[in-house]
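The instructor's notes for this session suggest beginning with a concrete chain rather than abstract definitions. Hand out the sequence below and ask the class to guess, before any prediction is shown, which regions might be ordered.
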Amino acid sequence: MIELNEEVKTSNGPISIHGFYDSRFESVKKEFAQNFSERGEVGAGVSIALEGEIVVDLWGGIADAESTKPWARETMPVVWSSTKGATSICLHTLAYRGLLDLDAPVSEYWPEYGVGNKAATTVKMFLNHTAGLPAIKEPVPANAYYDWPLIIKILEDAELWWKPGTEQGYHGLTKGFLCGEILRRITGKTIGEFLKSEFSEPLGLEFFMGLQDGQMGDVATMIFPEQTEPTADFFLSVDANPEGIQAKLFNNDGGHMGEFQTPIALKSEIPAAGGLATARGLAGIYAPFACGGELNGYRFVDQDQLQRMASVSSACGLDKALLVPMRFSEGFTKAMDNRLGKPGNQDSILMSEDAFGCPGFGGSIGLADPGARMSFGYCMNNMGEGTALNPRGQSLLNSTYKSLGYRLNKFGRWCAS
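After discussion, reveal the predicted structure:
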């Protein structure tokens, strides 16, 4: 391994990057440095595991732009919807253990939810964004996301946008609570407790839902992007239709979007968008699933369960929430190439067809590629404009695949040469 302690010149002055990398991934190191010098990176980390072993772990820049606190090895930003990947992994682990049937009606585990027009909802529909509850129509009380019993009652009473299973629309914030309540009903643990005891502790990962007081100093300060022209249809709809899915998804959150970096939010479990992780934690939680479902003597799933995690379960030319084409497996985003979409609607994730993972608002991502036996994690505090990979993260993923000898085909899929 090559140890790294390098100074990079940026428009805001020099910054340092640190870590180590296998010489095969020299191009990843170069792209990481260029993200700071040429693409506006402020603070970030990237990590790659191959055959379950970390072969790249780089971090650098500034964790807090106001104080200029350096980004350290343990620095964790909010990874937004990359949290969904960990939530989905937890449910698939329960399914492998025989404790959860993903095809069963939700009412078998959560009777209060599976009534009336929600009775046809299966657990799988929570995972593949077809359950009909991409957002909550009724006004959400202030701080409801930080009160688990309250938000669960709100979801039980919430009106659906469509009959379960008949449409696809990204459940941007509701998915985490829906899946988390299923897990709680089965295990008696919160999803943050389950993640910690079943993954973070045994695998030594910095990936958490709900921080302790002693971890607050490790949190990076997020920088929201300024929207530029052309504006995505999603944000145009937020402004144009206050009663639509997009406005309700983005604005009807009890104030969470404006409070997500406060201690009450960071200590709460928000399993669709509130996780905190290092890049090493993002790559590490997917590492077992890049290696057949087993790592370091721990088996999390078998090949049958892994196939469900990786196979497309829902896809459409226009996701009813995000208003772009989307493809999902049961709990994860699949490769999508929207580069030929109209300007503003070109959010993409260029990875192999074997790969599955979850991007987060602004550009973070964790993913597994079982074909390459590789897992990847990227996180940052300077958020990009889109809801998929930002150009900085995509440049790192591209150089990862190139280092493995893959080529990008004309359909936006990385393929083994």
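Then share the key points. The chain has one domain: 75-396. Residues 307 and 329 are 10 Å apart (CA to CA).
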